[in-house]
């Protein structure tokens, strides 16, 4: 009897430790996304459970990969950390027999592993999140190259969120592709004011040449430089066209998965502020935090207006 009770108590303790470990891993994912991807964090909070937990795991994985790629591009570290995440994706899809010990004991990886098993997430989308960062130095010759990068590095997250919701639909994927491209281009625009330490900014060369603007002028970003304004306008227009296409396609998307497309709202609001500032990227109204965004997102979700 004593032995049975000891086993029972030990088993109960294991369950408690496992539950505590799961809660800790969830909190790590939540904190990562909140601290490094605030607008997408707000959008993800408006998803329903249990999908919200898996969505946060996917976005936390994306944050981890993005953080490493930023250090690699700045020359602070080598490519080995990205190789670690590439190998991790391979590990997540190994046969179930004895693979529990093979998965690295990392809170984000544990949560992602659970999401992969629960929702049968596609391996190729996770791989694309890593390879897009590993293969690109953010030097684009054409706008098409930038769009392709955004498709891999941003739209792949949306494809995974659709799978988290059990949706594999060509109309949904089409809408996600355009939203991912719009968000990727907006992310690039928002990063330019923080690129001043570099000798170049990630603007497609064809746009710079078309408007007679060099990299140095983009770095200086003077408010009276009409050429810089025209380049910014041209790139913002590409993002806006993708956004409008995505919003038109959302009407064909099943209602339960439409909240995945809430980032449309934050992109729309940023482009609106940029237009009012005459496409000056370092204008205070453009760079400020959108304090009304949480309320606007909640209201737009209630109305189903994305």
TrEMBL record:
InterPro entries: Isoprenoid_synthase_dom_sf (IPR008949), Squ/phyt_synthse (IPR002060). SUPFAM superfamilies: Terpenoid synthases. The lineage of its organism: Eukaryota, Metazoa, Ecdysozoa, Arthropoda, Hexapoda. This is NADH dehydrogenase (Ubiquinone) complex I, assembly factor 6.
């Amino acid at each position: 009897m004593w032995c049975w009770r000891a086993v029972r108590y030990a088993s109960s303790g294991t369950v408690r430790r496992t539950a505590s470990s799961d809660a800790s891993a969830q909190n790590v994912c939540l904190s990562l996304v909140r601290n490094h991807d605030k607008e997408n964090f707000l959008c993800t909070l408006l998803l329903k459970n249990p999908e919200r937990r898996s969505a946060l795991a996917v976005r936390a994985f994306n944050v981890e990969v993005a953080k490493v790629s930023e250090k690699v591009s700045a020359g602070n570290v080598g490519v080995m950390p990205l190789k670690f995440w590439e190998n991790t994706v391979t590990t997540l899809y190994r046969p179930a027999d004895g693979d529990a010990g093979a998965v690295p004991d990392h809170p984000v990886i544990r949560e992602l592993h659970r999401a992969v098993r629960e929702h049968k997430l596609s391996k190729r989308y996770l791989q694309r999140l890593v390879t897009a960062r590993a293969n690109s130095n953010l030097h684009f010759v054409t706008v098409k190259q930038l769009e392709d990068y955004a498709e891999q590095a941003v739209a792949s997250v949306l494809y995974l969120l659709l799978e988290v919701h059990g949706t594999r639909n060509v109309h949904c994927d089409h809408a996600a592709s355009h939203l991912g491209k719009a968000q990727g281009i907006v992310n690039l625009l928002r990063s330019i004011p923080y690129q001043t330490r570099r000798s170049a900014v990630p603007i497609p060369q064809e746009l710079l040449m078309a408007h007679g603007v060099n990299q140095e002028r983009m770095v200086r970003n003077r408010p009276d430089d009409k050429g810089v304004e025209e380049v910014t306008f041209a790139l913002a227009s590409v993002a806006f066209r993708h956004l409008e296409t995505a919003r038109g396609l959302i009407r064909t998307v099943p209602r339960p998965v439409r909240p995945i497309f809430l980032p449309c709202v934050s992109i729309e609001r940023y482009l609106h502020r940029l237009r009012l500032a005459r496409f000056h990227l370092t204008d205070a109204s453009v760079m400020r935090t959108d304090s009304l965004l949480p309320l606007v997102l909640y209201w737009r979700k209630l109305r189903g207006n994305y």
